[in-house]
C-alpha cells in the first residue's frame, strides 16, 4: 500500500515527547500497522521534531496539526510554511481523552495550578472553569512534560494529559475524560524528506500563496470545484510579510499526479504567487475513490465528469443571461446590437479556445447563435419598455 522511503533502512521516528504524550500514542498507532520495527525517539518540542527529520537523524517525524475542537496547531503550520522544506507522508487521527492527573488522593479543591499544553487546556476550558475555578492554568510544551513537572514539584498541582503520562510519572488519574466535547480528536501528520508512494485512498496537502486581490482565492478554489475535486480542509496563516496576506493550507482528495489534480495545479500556478505540494499520502478517512487506482477512470467516472461539466456550462449560461439582461437597461430602442463588441468578444474567445484545447471555429458558430439569442432578449426588453 503506502511505502515510506527510509534512509539506510534504519526505522526511526521522532515524536513530540516526553514519554506519555498523545503524539507518542499516535506514533505507536502508526508503527503497529507497519510491518517493520520502528524506534521511537521523543523530542522536547515540535521544532526539534522538524529538525531531526530535516537533518536526516530520523526517517520520520510525527507532529500534531489540528484538533476537532480547537482547530489548527499554528506552530506546525508555520514551520511547514516558513522554515522547513519537508513532505507530509501520512496522517493519523487519534481520539483524545484528556484526564486530570495528580498525586493519588489530592482533593480537587486544593489544586492551585493546572499544567498542560495550550491545546489541552483549551479543550478542557469549561471543565476547569466549572470545577477548578481557583486553579491557575499554566501552559507547558507538552501534556507529558506537564505531568513530569507535577510529579517533580512538591506543590499541589495537577496536569492534563494521557493515562500513560500519569503512569509514567507515578501519578494517578483523578478525573478521566474532562474534555468539554466527547468527540475530541487530534490529527497528526508524518513528516519526511521524501514523498510517499501512495496510490490509493490518497489526499494531497498544498500550500498556496495568493496576493490580496479580488477573486484570487476564489479562482484557486474554482479550479478544484470545476473538476469535482473535494476539499477536506482550508486554513489560512499570515505570511508575516504584510497585513492581509495569507498562506492557504488546502487539503484535497486525490493524488498530485492524477490528471485532474495535475491540471488544476497547473491552472492555479498561473494565478497564485506560489504553490507548494506538501505531499500526497494515504487518507486516514476513507476517500470516495477507495481502492481504485486514480489513474484508470472507468466509463462511469468519465461520464460523471461530463455530467458535472455540462451542469457548470448551464449554470454559467444562466448567469450570462441575467448579466445581459442588466446590460439591456443601458440600451435604447434601435441600438441594441453592438457588432464591434461582438467581434472583440469573439476574437478573444477564439484565442482562449485554442489555448484551452477547443476548436475556435466551433466557438464562432456557437457564439453566433448565442449573440442572436441575447440580442433578441434585449430587444424584447427594450421594446416592452421594462
Ligand atoms: C450584452 C450586450 O449586448 C449585445 C449582446 C452581446 C453578448 O451577448 O455578448 C454583445 C453585444 C451586443 O450585441 C452588450 O452590449 O454588451
TrEMBL record:
Organism classification: Bacteria, Bacillati, Bacillota, Clostridia, Eubacteriales
Enzyme nomenclature, EC number: 4.2.1.51
UniProt enzyme class: lyase
First and last residue of the signal peptide: none
PANTHER family documented for this protein: PREPHENATE DEHYDRATASE P PROTEIN, PREPHENATE DEHYDRATASE-RELATED
Gene Ontology cellular-component terms listed: cytoplasm
Involved pathway(s): Amino-acid biosynthesis; L-phenylalanine biosynthesis; phenylpyruvate from prephenate: step 1/1
Xref: SMART domains: CM_2
Species this chain originates from: Desulfofarcimen acetoxidans (strain ATCC 49208 / DSM 771 / KCTC 5769 / VKM B-1644 / 5575) (Desulfotomaculum acetoxidans)
Gene Ontology MF term list: chorismate mutase activity; prephenate dehydratase activity
Keywords for the protein's UniProt record, in alphabetical order: Amino-acid biosynthesis, Aromatic amino acid biosynthesis, Lyase, Phenylalanine biosynthesis
Residue ranges of domain ACT in the record: 205-282
GO BP term (any one): L-phenylalanine biosynthetic process
Catalytic activity: prephenate + H(+) = 3-phenylpyruvate + CO2 + H2O
Record Pfam families: ACT (PF01842), CM_2 (PF01817), PDT (PF00800)
Start and end residues of each Chorismate mutase domain: 293-382
Annotated Prephenate dehydratase domain residues: 12-193
Protein name per its UniProtKB record: Prephenate dehydratase
Amino acid at each position: 500500500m503506502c511505502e515510506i522511503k527510509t534512509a539506510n533502512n534504519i526505522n526511526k521516528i521522532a515524536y513530540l515527547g516526553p514519554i506519555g504524550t498523545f503524539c507518542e500514542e499516535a506514533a505507536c498507532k502508526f508503527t503497529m500497522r507497519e510491518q517493520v520495527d520502528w524506534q521511537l525517539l521523543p523530542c522536547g518540542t515540535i521544532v526539534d521534531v522538524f529538525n531531526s527529520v530535516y537533518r536526516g537523524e530520523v526517517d520520520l517525524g510525527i507532529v500534531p496539526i489540528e484538533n476537532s475542537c480547537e482547530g489548527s496547531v499554528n506552530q506546525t503550520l508555520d514551520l511547514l510554511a516558513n522554515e522547513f522544506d519537508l513532505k507530509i507522508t501520512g496522517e493519523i487521527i487519534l481520539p483524545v481523552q484528556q484526564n486530570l492527573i495528580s498525586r493519588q488522593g489530592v482533593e480537587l479543591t486544593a489544586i492551585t495550578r493546572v499544567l498542560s499544553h495550550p491545546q489541552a487546556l483549551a479543550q478542557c476550558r469549561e471543565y476547569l472553569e466549572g470545577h477548578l475555578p481557583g486553579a491557575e492554568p499554566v501552559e507547558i510544551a507538552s501534556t507529558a512534560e506537564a505531568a513530569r513537572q507535577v510529579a517533580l514539584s512538591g506543590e499541589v498541582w495537577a496536569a492534563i494529559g494521557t493515562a500513560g503520562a500519569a503512569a509514567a510519572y507515578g501519578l494517578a488519574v483523578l478525573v478521566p475524560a474532562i474534555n468539554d466535547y466527547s468527540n475530541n480528536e487530534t490529527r497528526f501528520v508524518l513528516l519526511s524528506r521524501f514523498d510517499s508512494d501512495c496510490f490509493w485512498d490518497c489526499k494531497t496537502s498544498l500550500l498556496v500563496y495568493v496576493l490580496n486581490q479580488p477573486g484570487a482565492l476564489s479562482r484557486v478554489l474554482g479550479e478544484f470545484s470545476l473538476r469535482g475535486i473535494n476539499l477536506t480542509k482550508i486554513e489560512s496563516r499570515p505570511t508575516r510579510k504584510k497585513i492581509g496576506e495569507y498562506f492557504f493550507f488546502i487539503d484535497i482528495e486525490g493524488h498530485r499526479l492524477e490528471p485532474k489534480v495535475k491540471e488544476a495545479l497547473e491552472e492555479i500556478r498561473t494565478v497564485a504567487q506560489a504553490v507548494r505540494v506538501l505531499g500526497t499520502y494515504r487518507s486516514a478517512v476513507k476517500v470516495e475513490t477507495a481502492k481504485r487506482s486514480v489513474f484508470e477512470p472507468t466509463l462511469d467516472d468519465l461520464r460523471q465528469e461530463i455530467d458535472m461539466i455540462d451542469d457548470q456550462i448551464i449554470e454559467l449560461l444562466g448567469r450570462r443571461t441575467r448579466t445581459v439582461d442588466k446590460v439591456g437597461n443601458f440600451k435604447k430602442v434601435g441600438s441594441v446590437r453592438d457588432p464591434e463588441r461582438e467581434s472583440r468578444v469573439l476574437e478573444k474567445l477564439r484565442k482562449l479556445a485554442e489555448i484551452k484545447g477547443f476548436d475556435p471555429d466551433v466557438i464562432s458558430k456557437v457564439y453566433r447563435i448565442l449573440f442572436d439569442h441575447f440580442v433578441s432578449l434585449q430587444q424584447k426588453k427594450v421594446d416592452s419598455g421594462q
